[in-house]
Amino acid sequence: MDGVVYQEAVALTLSQRNIHLENVDKLGEAEALRGLADVLWLQDEGSQAVTPFSKALQISTEIGNKKGKAHALLDLAQVHRHQRDYGQAIASFSEAASIRKEIGDSRGAASALWSLEEAHRLQGEYNQALESHSEALQVRTDIGDGKGTADSWSVLANVRRD
Asked: pTM (2 decimals)?
């Protein structure tokens, strides 16, 4: 993304957020903050993306938007993983997986568990990685996700070799 397009994207997202603030639209505000954080993330400014992702998490929690909360947690976890802060990434991926299970989003739970496995593996916690991955494999099998199941078996074989 070139500098001019980036500047325009940031300006538009901030403008969107201000509109939601004026209308006391907390859900819209949280979504606008996540959009701003996404733009910052795409510009490889992960450390700056933490603040709007965290604010989106706070708002989603306050208004009881579990889906938004899980999404913000996943976004934060990705930033933490990228920054090699695996402890924070693990905590966020774990909480997001729990929320996704709670709201009946099995595919989202499997995806969060898959990411949780990777964070554990990068941390050198191979037993926890196997546990998370096995759980993701079970969820994918239960929902009939053939490709996800096949991918899980392939990765599981690689984890066991490590």
From this structure: 0.78
